[in-house]
Amino acid sequence: MKIEPSIAERYPDLGDYARLYARRQGQVEFWEDYISPYLSITFAEADTLIWEFDVHGIHCNRLGSLHGGCVATLIDVCSSFATLVHEGKHRWDMIGVSTDLGISYMRGVPSGKKIRLECKVQRQGKSLSYIYTTVYDDENHVCYTGSHTKYTIKTKSNM
């Protein structure tokens, strides 16, 4: 997993998580280890986090397109990190756990292509965060969307 240095500087918790995931590159012990070496955080601002992902054969189904389970994992991981760029009253210092994840599959993406995941925090409170993700191919077509609800027990700011 890669992150632009200026983004890691602006969002230290995000940088810490990206470095934690990057340390595992080359080791496959957890499910997300199949995707993290191919992910890059390219943009961050309040409530918005943008990623790029290089699709390889290991991420595809037998038809040669990005596997639905891989899409779900990408949206899960990428939108979870978006909780760390919320700049409102309730800031989190951990990505929490999923309570709900809904995915729409509209257009397949073949191996060898790059996708862009745009994650937007819709609302974040003391313990729940709602994130919406749109996934685009390299021709800017919407391929997948996801809504994700996260829960955390630990927050940084006032309750």
TrEMBL record:
PANTHER family named in the record: ACYL-COENZYME A THIOESTERASE 13, THIOESTERASE SUPERFAMILY MEMBER-RELATED
Homology family: Belongs to the thioesterase PaaI family.
MF terms (GO), sorted A to Z: fatty acyl-CoA hydrolase activity
Domain Thioesterase: 64-143
InterPro entries: ACOT13, HotDog_dom_sf, PAAI_dom, Thioestr_dom
SUPFAM superfamilies reported for this sequence: Thioesterase/thiol ester dehydrase-isomerase
Keyword Hydrolase set for record: yes
Protein name as catalogued: HotDog domain-containing protein
Keywords for this protein: Hydrolase
One Pfam family here: 4HBT
Signal peptide: none
Organismal lineage: Eukaryota, Fungi, Fungi incertae sedis, Mucoromycota, Mucoromycotina
Taxonomic source organism: Absidia repens
